[in-house]
Specification:
alpha/beta, 7 strands, single chain, seven-stranded parallel β-sheet
């Protein structure tokens, strides 16, 4: 269903982005806003969200913990009340954990599953009526390492690989309902996610060295490059594309 404004023209798209306080989420929020969309930027912390929206009047920050009971319903309810529509949902929020089999605990596993897998499922489910009404798009942000091995970080990669399977499955399920589902699988990107996880500078340097060694282009990508992939797959020009997982990783997957 296509809604028109009072002038008969198409209204600005409404975009919901999770994990929008820093990195890829922030870059994507600004990229969509630059295209004229109204962006709801969701994250746990108010300060980074304020930085994301600073100077961008089309970005509305919304602090929320996606893993808390009732939060996904509150987010979608807020969008329905303030905008009445949702055209694009970007499931970007994610946390990284390290560990090897033999050292995992319920306490270390649960946050990864709750943030990286359960939250996108519940949020997409809650947003589906709005997305269907708008003929919308779901963009899941995964990881290109999910298509390879990642020793010492396999559980994180596993959650993102599961999200890729959901991308393909949802694409088939929702195509008859007019909703597209796609994914972007970033490689090594210059974001502060390692700092957020409390990794030491030495740990971050070790991981970066490993990433560079496995990236044929020999450099780290930028959040803006991933944002381009997200906005492009979500654009009306990509209207015949669904179920695709696009690696944006400097050639890491094919090396």
């Amino acid at each position: 269903m296509t809604n028109l404004d009072d002038t008969g023209s198409h209204p600005p798209r409404v975009v919901l982005i999770t994990g929008a306080g820093t990195g890829i989420g922030r870059a994507a929020a600004r990229a969509f806003a630059a295209e004229g969309a109204h962006v709801i930027a969701v994250g746990r912390r108010t300060e980074p969200l304020a930085e994301t929206s600073a100077g961008h009047d089309r970005i509305t920050p919304l602090a929320a913990d996606l893993t808390a009971a009732g939060e996904v319903e509150r987010i979608v309810g807020t969008i329905a009340e303030t905008h009445g529509r949702l055209d694009v949902l970007v499931n970007n929020a994610g946390i990284v954990g390290t560990g090897h089999l033999g050292g995992y605990t319920r306490e270390s596993i649960d946050p990864l599953l709750a943030t990286n897998l359960i939250a996108p499922v519940l949020l997409t489910q809650a947003a589906l009526p709005l997305l269907e009404a708008a003929g919308g798009v779901v963009v899941n942000v995964t990881t290109s390492v999910g298509q390879r091995a990642w020793p010492g970080n396999s559980l994180y990669a596993a959650t993102k690989t599961a999200l890729e399977l959901l991308t393909r499955s949802w694409a088939v399920d929702l195509a008859p309902r007019g909703v597209r589902v796609v994914a972007v699988a970033p490689g090594a990107i210059d974001t502060p996610i390692g700092e957020h996880q409390g990794w030491t500078p030495e740990q971050r340097a070790t991981i970066r060295a490993w990433q560079l060694a496995h990236t044929p282009m020999g450099r780290i990508g930028t959040p803006e490059e991933i944002a381009w992939s997200i906005t492009t797959l979500a654009s009306p020009g990509a209207s015949f594309i669904t179920g695709v997982v696009l690696p944006a990783d400097g050639g890491a997957v094919v090396s």
